[in-house]
Structures are given as C-alpha cells and as structure tokens.
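Posting for a labmate who doesn't have an account.
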Amino acid sequence: MLGTIVRLTLRGIALTVRSIWRLIFGPPVIRRRATACVRNPYVIDGDTIAVGRQRYRLLGIDAPEMSQGEAGPAARAHLIKLIGGGEVEISASGRDCYDRILCDLWSRGANGAEGRHLNLAMVEDGYAFATRDRDFWKRHERRARRRKAGIWASRRRIARPDQHRLRASVA
C-alpha cells in the first residue's frame, strides 16, 4: 500500500516536472481559432485596433505609446502596413482591465491562404516589446534589437511602454 502511494506520488511529480519543462522550453502554442474576420480595422496604436466600438489588444506584446516620441507613431504605422488595408482574423482569448478583448491577430493571405501572425510580426520587425513569458518571444525581440530593426534603429534609448505609462501617471 505504501509502495503504491510512493509510486503514484513520484509519477505525479514526474508529470508535473514534464509539464513545467514543456511550458518553459516547448514550442509556442498559439491558438488559431478565428472568432472574427474583419476588413481594414482602425489601428489606434501599435498594439490596439478597433472594429466599430470594440477595441482589441494584441496579446503578448507591448508597443510604444503614441506619446513616446517617434517610436509610438512608427509602431502604429508599421501595424497599419502589416494589415495593409486587407482582412484580418481575430482570435480572442479574454479581456483586460480596460475591457478590451485580448487577441491574436492574423493577416489573411490571398484567397484565404494562411497569413502572418501579426503579434509576432510586430516583435520580429522591431516595433514592439515581447511580454509573453516564453523564450520564443524574447528571442525574437533580442534578434530585432541586434539587427537594429524598427524602433531599435534609433540611438535614443526607448523606455518600455509600461514604464512610460507609470511615469506619465505619476507626473
């Protein structure tokens, strides 16, 4: 009886360790369930779009605020360029504290073909910070920084958007 309990406990620990290992080092799991397909959404800034009155916040990234010098408008312009006046798929996964829908955004390829994951594209192209706690996302941000892509091309240090918002709220 005691041996069975020990074996079950050890098996549970092994499963937990394996799950944590996969969570940290496994490939990124990006669910792609299109909850909406929209044409030419309004881009508010580098990580927020609007469709009608509803706002959508791109999950896993934080783009510079519009008040952050040249970086904010550059990030917004890049997201507009990625969308390209075409159709995008929105895969929703909850709401944030501002009642925006958190989502993954996908561009629609020609004739409904597979498109590009725009959340990741903003990080890869150097126009957003990665906020997902996964090496995969952080690695793409580091590569963009090394290549001096997007906002990283500037010689001026760019504050993380969350730090910028904090300073703005204190002032």
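Reply:
Got it, the structure tokens are right above this. Residues 55 and 98 are 9 Å apart (CA to CA).
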